[in-house]
Every structure is written in structure tokens, then in C-alpha cells.
Amino acid sequence: DSGVTQTPKHLITATGQRVTLRCSPRSGDLSVYWYQQSLDQGLQFLIQYYNGEERAKGNILERFSAQQFPDLHSELNLSSLELGDSALYFCASSVGGEANEKLFFGSGTQLSVL
Amino acid sequence: AQTVTQSQPEMSVQEAETVTLSCTYDTSESDYYLFWYKQPPSRQMILVIRQEAYKQQNATENRFSVNFQKAAKSFSLKISDSQLGDAAMYFCAYRWRGTASKLTFGTGTRLQVTL
Which of A26, A67, A90, B111 is the most buried if burial means most Cβ atoms within 10 Å? Predict the structure, then answer.
């Protein structure tokens, strides 16, 4: 158990809908990362937050947004969903967000867009 | 942009034998970190080993070791005395030392361990 909790584990929805994925980092970790894993694009970095502030941004679509709350949990919002958004979405956390830090990954949320 | 390439989509090894997974990367930076992550069927990503680019000594973690060739931009993972529990997807990853850097993954190598 990594200590990172992601909910829900599975999500099935329809095109055009909006969903929210939730992540609780390990106790004491200030940095949260979101990754998308799909068969065609592999593991893609979406966004990183550190203590409530956005720190780094990757290939995150404009239809996607995220935030980190004062209690350090994070949410990833996906809107106007398309079939191609079907993927495994990972959240990870680390202590301070430095490059050498070990990332602890959650078990992911499997999103299926029908 | 940094890229990470894993040219072996699948590898197979017999239990107790040794296997090497390949990884190459492309970067113009000199100070960075390299990682190998394991993703078993449970889907959870687990850090196997980490290498700092400014350290010439290859990292080792029990049965796992790396061969880091900075000039060649190569970072292979050697698994000794392979066990059934080593069966998983293995991802090589790169992260520049600077602030706001991202962890970039390769496409992965699926390792099968046979009896």
C-alpha cells in the first residue's frame, strides 16, 4: 500500500459528460501529480501541484482541470468527455516535489467513456 | 524535449536467471535523474531503482542493478535471480533536476517470468 488513495477505482460514463477524480496523498506529502495511462499514448504527465499551487503542467487538455485543496487532497476534473479520454488516471505524491524524490502512486481510476 | 525509449516491448526470463531491460533517453541537460518503475497486474506503479546522473557509480537495490552510460544516454536494468513476482511492466523514466520538471516515462517492457 503506497498510502495514496484514489477514488473511485472505476468510472463508466458517456461522451459529453463531466467527471471528478479524487486523490488523497500520503500523509506529509505536499506535492501531487496526475498522470494518464492509455494504450496509444502510454504514461503522460498531466499536472503537478505543490502545497496548493500549480507547479508544472504537461499535456493536459483544456477540457481537463485540477486543483489541490488546503487539506492537500487533489481533484482532477474531466469535462466534455470523448471516447479517447478512456484511460487509467494515476495520482502520485511526493514529499516536496523535487526531481530526485520517489513518487508514490495510487492504484488509479479506470475511466471508461462509452 | 526529453524522450525515453524502451525498444523491447516484451521480454521473457526463466526463474532464477538474469535478464536485462534496455532504455535510452534523449536530453540536452547534464543534471537529471533516471528511474525504473514496476507496474504489476495490480496496476500500482512501484519505484524499483533510482540513479543520479552526476554519480558515476551504478545504483543497486538487492537483485536489481543498473548499467548507466551517460555518454551513450543508456540506462539498462538488470534483474538477477528472477522470481515469479518480478513479472510486470517495467517503465524507465527521466526527470530533469530543475524546478517544475516532469517525470517522463518510456513505453514500457512487459517481463514474463517462466518456470
Answer: A90
Which has the higher per-residue pLDDT, A102 or B64?
Answer: B64
Question: Looking at the complex, does the CB of residue B61 fall below 8 Å from at least one CB of chain A?
Answer: no
Mutation for B interface: A43, A46, A51, most B CBs within 10 A: A43
- Nearest-by-CA chain A residue for B92: A43
Question: Is B106 within 8 Å of A55 when comparing Cβ atoms?
Answer: no
- pLDDT tens per residue across span B20-71: 999 999 999 889 999 999 999 988 899 999 999 998 899 999 999 999 999 9
Burial status of residue B22 (CB atoms within 10 A of its CB: 0-12, 13-18, 19 or more): middle
CA torsion angle for B4, B7, B12, B17 (degrees, to 10)? -70
Q: What span, in angstroms and rounded, lies between the C-alpha atoms of A43 and A108?
A: 12
Bridge-based pairing state of the strands B32-39 and B88-96: antiparallel
Output the pLDDT for position A1.
Answer: 83
Bridge partners (DSSP) of residue B91 are B37
Among B43, B52, B107, beta carbon nearest to A108: B43
Preceding peptide of A8 cis, ω within 30°? yes
Is B99 an 8 Å CB contact of chain A?
Answer: yes
Q: In the beta sheet, which residues pair with residue A88? A: A37, A110
Question: Looking at the predicted structure, is the pLDDT value of residue A62 above 90?
Answer: yes
